[in-house]
Amino acid sequence: METPAETHPAEQKRKPPYGMLAVLMIGAFISFLNNTLLNVALPSIMADLSVGPAVVQWLTTGFMLINGILIPATAFLIENYPVRRLFLAAMSLFVLGTVLAGNAPLFPPGLAFPVLLAGRMVQAAGSAIMMPLLMNAMLVSFPVERRGAAMGVFGLILMFAPAIGPTLSGWILQYHHWRMLFDMLLPVAAAILLAGLFLLRDRKARTGDRLDKGSLLLSSIGFGGLLYGFSMAGSQGWSSPHVLVALPAGALSLALFIRRQIRMARPMLNFGVFRHPMFSLASAITMILNMAMFSGILLLPIYMQTVIGFSPLHSGLTLLPGAILNAALSPVNGRLFDRYGARVLAVTGLVITAVTTFLFSRLTLETGTVWLMAVHALRMAGFSMVMMPVSTNGLNQLPPALYPHGTAMNNTLNQVSGAIGTAVLMSVMEIRQAAHARELAAEAAAGAGGADIAVRAMLGGINDTFFASGMLLVLGLVLAFFVRRARPAGGPRP
Description:
Layout: H1 18-37, H2 42-49, H3 53-56, H4 58-70, H5 74-80, H6 83-102, H7 109-141, H8 144-175, H9 180-199, H10 213-236, H11 241-263, H12 277-307, H13 312-340, H14 342-360, H15 369-396, H16 403-445, H17 453-480
């Protein structure tokens, strides 16, 4: 089978390579599912391997860092290597990482956690390639007028995997050891690797381009430093030495990286994508949306488990309908995008998302499960109307030769905005929680009494953070009114 990236213009009317896309999608699904499975298991891993929170968090921070370092390089890889070769490399890395992580408990105590971390890092190297590879394949396989529906199916895969991840993980941990999270994925990942080996075909020859090592070094320090710095700021505070070193180093390296890319004839990551206004606008809206939506990801589990006493499984089940609705609406929104464009979806979705976020800023000690489930489901429905349509509209304006760079840039910015959102929102929560604690302590001294001060202070901090997230979404809503239907700017096909 010929991959779409190598299809000649005269052949563009051929049917999209559905077999190849199916293989890529299943591989991506396994990769995305893996990203959310482990979070619920961190307490079990801490107890089993005798490590503290500062150590175990590297299972998620390290994964994110590897993604942040490798994703910017995927544009070069997609331009210079066949789809088949990249997919096999990505899935081989993922399978190897899964084997290492799943067998980590069998190693001596002093080696078990390092092996587990190494396995996660290798998994991350494979996952970093999958997302841009699949997005690029979708872009070059479908014409603009059918791309919304196609990307809607892609969004279903993208969103359904993380949706079921925490609940599935909670159920598995109730009955099995945490290594089952990896053992369960291994046969499926191995089967997809074999399917790719026999079903994918490429005619594209290796080009003579060489990866610029200076660009790779600056990109790694730049994006890696920012991701690490913001991650540490979210967990250790902005005054941490890690933050004070990582953020300036990352910002300086990123500035030098951008300068180098602008001056290169064939850059590793082409910042010329931002010359296209709809792509730039889409990037701004999706970054704002990512930052704001992290409030739900971070704060709702804290609220449910710490403030009102839900179990982890109860919390996961409360959030599950919203996550499933988010995924299920993606194909519908894709078809609506093809018919009506991105603006009407983005404006409607951001109104829904902002209103529901403001509703979450009025949580109480007595808020019930049904209300939480319903508001969260509406919030995720709004999110589904914005993310994929706006991103697709931005990518549609790029000439085909910039597709690899656009998809790599999108995924890199998603990583960075997620880290920024985590750091900023956790800081807002801590500041407001401390302020509420002082107010409540003064009331208690005056004889006001009431519930536990620490719990009420946390509730106040959570509500204020949701309000701040709502204001971010209002900014995104203003930007959404400037969205217009985009068409390719022209240029040769890749």
